Amino acid sequence: MAITERTKRLSPEIFDLPVEKMRAGYYTDAYFNHARETLLADGCHPQVVMQVFQKKDAYLGGMDEAIAILKLCSEDVDGLKIQALYDGDRVSPYETVMTIEGDYTAFAHLETLYLGVLSRRTLITTNVVRVLEAANGKPIIFMPARHDHHRNQTGDGYAAYVAGRVVGAPIGVTTDEQASWWGGKGVGTVPHALISAYGGDTVLAATRFADWAPPDLNVVVLVDFENDSVRTSLEVARALGPRLWGVRLDTAEALVDRSLWDELGDFKPTGVNERLVRKVRAALDDAGFEDVRIVASGGFTVDKIEQFEARGVPVDSYGIGSSLIRGSNDFTADVVVTDGKPTAKAGRRWRPNPRLERVE
């Protein structure tokens, strides 16, 4: 497992936060706003230790973003002492990932925000780490953009990038927005829509795409448009020659590829399955296209990738979509000390963590 960089955090300005609305409590659960207003009306400024944690084995995401919220949107950040782990750190159930010490009224209105960021980004980072580990170092294309709201793209893309640093394995994203925080670019294949735009002719669409594409863009072509992936792969390979980087298998879960119609009976034939991948690989190799890679997508999960890898299925890269944004990884924040005295609720306690580092 690669070691993540733990000496530099992203600048708060990179997150382009709606600072004024956050400061005003616009995105905050009302009860936190009400609690803060109660304290202010009473002239009460309790000095607290707020402790943040979650309940799973996970890989931390969203910490730099959470810190940015505190720095830019609290009432008196200079009066706060923030200690935190780093994006990409492996964390245990109930391990403290951040503490905030200071006047509670200075940051009470931000709890909803930093917990939400940590929950979402940690979910993505953890899911992507597990997929990368299952893929044994093979490249992964992070493809959930079409399955979620566009405003999630930026932070989710960075969370995927953090996962790639954790594992030390390549991760590609499909939109420029997903790659914006680290200065990358979105990657993509010849899509079904372009093939449709050329009348369903995959070879013509691929050829025109390759004519347009800059030299440093890997040309990858979807080959399931006519549900005949072996034939289409060979046609595209012959047409594009060395310009073709790879073919992408994306057969729908309800379909059986034409190349398998005479082989039904002893395996699950639908979707992108082992036998289909092996048939495409064998056909390309027999025709002299050993350098053409195979990208597999469509319904892939950690379990399916693990099965493919255990059986040595000749996939060079996996495209993963909606499964990477599914699940939950909820964070909680507790006031555990008030004015120097323990004040955690029943069942909770202050859990100091020597791994935390002071945020400057």
Distance between the termini: 28 Å
Count of discrete domains: 2
Please, what is the average pLDDT?
93
Total helices: the number is 10
- Mind telling me the CATH superfamily name of the largest domain? Aldolase class I
Number of strands: 14
Give the H and E element order.
Answer: HHEEHEEEHEHEHHEHEHEHEEEE
Which of globular, elongated, flat, extended, rod-shaped describes the shape? Answer: elongated
Largest sheet: 6 strands, antiparallel
User: What name does the CATH topology of the largest domain carry?
Assistant: TIM Barrel
CATH architecture of the largest domain: Alpha-Beta Barrel
Poorly predicted regions are none
Strand order of the largest sheet: 13-12-1-5-3-14
Strand content: 15-25%
Rg value: 25 Å
Identify the CATH class of the largest domain: Alpha Beta
Helix fraction by DSSP (H/I, runs of at least 4): 25-40%
Quickly give the structural class: alpha/beta
